[in-house]
Amino acid sequence: PPPGLSSLLPPREFLRSRKGQLLLAESVLSFIIFICYIASLAASFVMAPLLEFLMALLLFFAYASKLNEKFKGVHWPLADLLRCVTASIIYFSISIAAVSKYSDGASKAAGVFGFAATIVFAIDFYITFNDLVTFLKQGSSDSPEGHKTE
Q1: Cα 32 to Cα 41: distance, rounded to the nearest angstrom
Q2: What is the pLDDT of residue 150?
Q3: What is 47-93 written as a DSSP string?
Q4: Phi and psi (nearest 5°) for 41?
Q5: Model confidence, pTM
């Protein structure tokens, strides 16, 4: 059959993977927070969830289409690690500000979803960090200097 819109959808095995589910949750939460901030009095915070939504969506489709295997010039785990760290810090700080400073319901909802997004991004950071440490330990044991005999 000719490829149609189904060719744009990510493969099922990626959607069932831990990384795929985390990136999907990050994208959905960031979009919900973006919508909440648009409808709230705290509209000045709207840029952070928009950027996080776009970056999570970009990485979601990059990993789903295996661009990380094609473009070796980008250190994908490190970029993902930095994205998760900055996103969790930013979401935590703007969520505290939205919940404490603004009294409308949309700001409170954005703050609550922001705390949930902080947890999801922190989990993604933890898993990516452990994978990166495991990869670096594995790479250092395979180095030629480690196999020298004296």
Answers
A1: 16
A2: 39
A3: HHHHHHHHHHHHHHHHHHTTHHHH-TTS-HHHHHHHHHHHHHHHHHH
A4: -80, -15
A5: 0.82
